């Protein structure tokens, strides 16, 4: 047999073993958000994807999250904004971004040429600002969905304050849902006593899916200077340090709502992704891991596929919520 014929055989045999990886993140939405696989990037950890697209075929990802955007450009917080911690990092970026108009004119025009769905992470200081942002983004070419950030821990106004109060979270989500035809994902904060209360409030307000979760609120202190090591006393903790905490929150949330949950927090490899799927996540987001290795999300995807092959999983949807607790 010629080498070419053998190669063809191998690839068709491989294809035969390829599990179905496609997941539906918004089964009830006006516009669909179907991912070709459940691995996305997490907002703010790979900018707007343009740099990643130079490193690998960006369309291999299931989905891409933009850096959080606001109506007007923001400079963010002063430095130091990032500090390493054991098994993680603290950040206090404070939502530095170019503003929605520039995002649409300079970046969404590139997204439009990609197959991978790009979801825009968005934030306002007021409910009205969230609604106005949703209107501007509605129908914009290159934008496949909105992730409503009610969970940023690094701001004086809004941010996590919306996500800690179920009524305020619901008001934001409702304002966004009524201002757009795009699928709406509410990104929750882990910094609450009972995440299921906020999760249900967002579902009832019309969210199509939930992302669980944003960074945890943490601190690090320079004992010589007796000052915080970040520009603000508290900052957002991310990375492997938070994985067991995020996993627990995903499991609790998925058992409390009927809409898809996206797992996020400390995922670095395929087994982490499988854990989140088993706990009830329909997809996962890879964040801090990509600071160590920009190929992290692709690695997670390849290892997830390998897990499916090794374990006879023909459809990744069969893993979602398949955790056995008895
Ligand atoms: C530097 C940095 C910037 C971030 N920016 C945003 C952002 O703009 N919007 C948002 O919703 N989350 C933001 N996040 C939170 C991540 O999207 C994610 O929820 C969090 O990092 C947990 O996932 P990980 O442990 O995989 O990083 C940011 C995280 C980091 C580390």
3D structure, described in words:
There is one protein chain. The chain is α/β, with parallel strands linked by helices and 326 residues long. The protein has one domain (23-76, 94-219, 238-319): TIM Barrel. Helices cover 34% and strands 17% of the residues. The chain contains eleven helices and 16 strands. The strands form four sheets. It has an eight-stranded parallel sheet. β5 (82-85) and β6 form a beta hairpin. α4 packs parallel to α6 and α9 (270-278) packs across α11 (296-310). The longest helix is centred in the first third of the chain and has 15 residues, at 3-17. The model is unreliable at 1-7 (pLDDT under 50). Bound molecules: flavin mononucleotide (FMN). Residues 42-45, 67-68, 91, 93, 121, 149, 187, 214-215, 238-239, 242, 264-267, 286-289 line the site of flavin mononucleotide (FMN). Flavin mononucleotide binds next to loops.
What share of the residues lie within helices? 25-40%
Taking all Cα atoms into account, the compactness measure Rg is: 19 Å
CATH topology: TIM Barrel
Query: Which parts are unreliable, with pLDDT below 50 for 5 consecutive residues or more?
Result: 1-7
Going across the biggest sheet, name each strand in turn: 3-16-15-10-9-8-7-4
Shape: globular
Report the mean per-residue pLDDT as an integer: 94
CATH class: Alpha Beta
Largest sheet: 8 strands, parallel
Specify the structural class. alpha/beta
The unique ligands bound to this protein are: flavin mononucleotide
- Indicate how many domains the architecture comprises: 1
Give the terminus-to-terminus CA distance: 52 Å
């Amino acid at each position: 047999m010629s080498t070419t014929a053998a190669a063809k055989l191998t690839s068709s045999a491989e294809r035969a073993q390829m599990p179905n990886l496609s997941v539906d993140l918004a089964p009830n939405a006006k516009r669909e958000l179907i991912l070709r696989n459940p691995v996305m990037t997490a907002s703010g950890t790979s900018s707007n994807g343009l740099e990643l697209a130079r490193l690998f075929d960006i369309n291999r990802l299931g989905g891409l999250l933009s850096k959080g955007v606001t109506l007007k450009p923001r400079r963010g917080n002063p430095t130091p904004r990032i500090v390493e911690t054991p098994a993680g990092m603290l950040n206090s970026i404070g939502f530095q971004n170019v503003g929605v108009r520039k995002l649409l004119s300079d970046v969404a025009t590139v997204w439009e040429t990609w197959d991978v769905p790009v979801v825009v992470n968005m934030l306002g200081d007021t409910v009205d600002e969230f609604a106005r942002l949703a209107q501007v983004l509605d129908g914009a070419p290159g934008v496949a969905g909105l992730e409503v950030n009610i969970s940023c821990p690094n701001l004086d106004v809004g941010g996590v304050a919306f996500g800690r109060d179920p009524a305020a979270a619901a008001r934001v989500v409702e304002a966004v849902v009524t201002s757009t035809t795009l699928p709406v994902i509410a990104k929750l904060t882990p910094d609450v006593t009972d995440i299921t209360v906020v999760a249900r409030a967002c579902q009832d307000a019309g969210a199509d899916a939930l992302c669980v979760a944003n960074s945890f609120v943490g601190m690090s202190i320079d004992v010589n200077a007796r000052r915080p090591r970040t520009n603000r006393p508290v900052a957002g903790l991310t990375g492997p340090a938070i994985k067991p905490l995020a996993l627990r929150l995903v499991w609790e949330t998925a058992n409390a709502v009927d809409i898809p949950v996206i797992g996020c927090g400390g995922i670095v490899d395929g087994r982490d992704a499988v854990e989140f799927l088993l706990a009830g996540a329909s997809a996962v987001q890879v964040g801090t891991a990509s600071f160590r290795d920009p190929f992290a999300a692709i690695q997670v995807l390849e290892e997830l596929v390998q897990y499916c092959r090794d374990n006879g999983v023909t459809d990744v949807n069969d893993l979602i919520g398949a955790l056995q607790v008895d």
